[in-house]
Here is the input.
Amino acid sequence: MKIAIVYHSETGNTEKMAELVCAGCALVEGVEARCMPITAVDETYVVESRAVILGSPTYEGSCSWQMKRYLDAGAKGLAGKLGGVFASQNWPGGGGASFAEMTMIAGMLVRGMIIYSGGITKGQPYLHFGAVSRRAPEEELYRERCVKLGENIARKAVELFGDM
Amino acid sequence: MKIAIVYHSETGNTEKMAELVCAGCALVEGVEARCMPITAVDETYVVESRAVILGSPTYEGSCSWQMKRYLDAGAKGLAGKLGGVFASQNWPGGGGASFAEMTMIAGMLVRGMIIYSGGITKGQPYLHFGAVSRRAPEEELYRERCVKLGENIARKAVELFGDM
Amino acid sequence: MKIAIVYHSETGNTEKMAELVCAGCALVEGVEARCMPITAVDETYVVESRAVILGSPTYEGSCSWQMKRYLDAGAKGLAGKLGGVFASQNWPGGGGASFAEMTMIAGMLVRGMIIYSGGITKGQPYLHFGAVSRRAPEEELYRERCVKLGENIARKAVELFGDM
Amino acid sequence: MKIAIVYHSETGNTEKMAELVCAGCALVEGVEARCMPITAVDETYVVESRAVILGSPTYEGSCSWQMKRYLDAGAKGLAGKLGGVFASQNWPGGGGASFAEMTMIAGMLVRGMIIYSGGITKGQPYLHFGAVSRRAPEEELYRERCVKLGENIARKAVELFGDM
Here is the structure.
């Protein structure tokens, strides 16, 4: 089962999150995951994926305009897929990342996706709306969150779509 | 397969939405749906349900405090279930219902639910984050949205959980 | 006192809202208001303005990526100014316009603006987070909302900054 | 000039934030600030205040139902006042506090308030939508944010209303 992680990153922080999310997906048997920046999306791979996870830096309190442009104009084949989100911000809390996650979730719902994070039900670290990191995920907590998001989404995708 | 519609209603507007959402669920073969106000939730039924749909009036731009209290303190057994939302507002657009829907979705994600609406991918009327009505759903558009939300959630629940 | 209305419009719907917001501002003595699309912002005029009102269509449940790009990368001199918002959507409620308004408000707060709508305290039609219209503001309610937003922001700007 | 800080706190974390916000207000000459829990609001003082700052813990990704109840049913005399927000969460980022702040801001706009934080325009630490702390504000960053929010709101209130 394929899972696509589509991210926007200028400084490399969100890209590092994407790699950890990808590693988290790969912990689940039968799952193949691939990261791709929104400037080089492999549309065929996205269409073939059963889950798509979007990641963005937080700009002015919501997801970056580049990620918004992807959601508005570029994203193809998202309907019916499982969706998850992650966001970097420059501060430990209060930088708007939770709101940025909700902006992506809003667009993904409109596109017919099924949104999941696992929230506080899959053990610590808790995820709430998705995975958030202060800048690049260097501290253990932020690294674990990214891995957990990938793992939660991959396990849920296998559970929901494994027999299809 | 059981589906629970849990709503808060003071004027009866959101209750009428709930009944139409329930009727929409019942259009799908094999689905049993039941409406219940947050003051009289059948917890056993909720726990046995594969999908839970929450509905609230829009108060001060977000879901009512009564619905928020249910999400904060009362809701049991939501993890892993499919979730959907609906909201009434007093105005045709601009009354905050979309934001109210996102408040409920935020809480449902934290509780480990899988959120779905169908968005703009299941034909008209489009749903975006869920079903919105101006006051009681008397106009055809508002009635159809409620029914469609129920139907979309029920079909998706059968698709995802039908074999489990 | 100058007020700038900066909008993004592809179909012309949001542009028509902008013109009505502008007309509402002009109802207030001593106020000069000007509309400008984000593709042709008069930066000098914006900097000289005491209030800036932003308008966008609702795309995928939030403000358009073009408006987000303006907030992320283009907007200059917003700090300390009074801010207001308006949004068009394709549906009477439930199209995400309230959430789109909040996305703009998030960015405006980060940029140091002071946000105001008047909400439900300035008589009908009520505004909540700003002015919302279904497509172009053809129905009386939608037209009145746009005018009211302009008038509320202009009156508040004169009240707050009139002596400065 | 009076400023009221109205907060909800169960564990005492948000209360400690409130005290620091209050201390920040008191740094500004001519300002008298007072903290009060939503269970014991001094309504006369709130009505006499030119600014009201609301603080809440983050529950299930938005402000607590108790704070929502205050906004829905209890808050009096907020129209026309300057407003600010703060929120505690259990995690350094990703706990939903930014979204919780936006829930309060939504209600405050509906009630006719003028919302301000100062965002990233008043030096570090940046505030974005308001002040966020992980649990009680023990780390320097979180303490400074609370003080800065109070100071920003108080300075702006004096600037806007000082001559009235």
Notes: Chain B touches chain D at residues 59-62, 64-66, 68-69, 71-73, 96, 99, 103, 106-107, 109-111 (CB under 8 Å). Chain B has a mean pLDDT of 95. Strands of chain B lie at 2-7, 32-37, 51-59, 62-63, 82-89, 114-115, 131-134. Residues 77 and 136 of chain B are 29 Å apart (CA to CA).
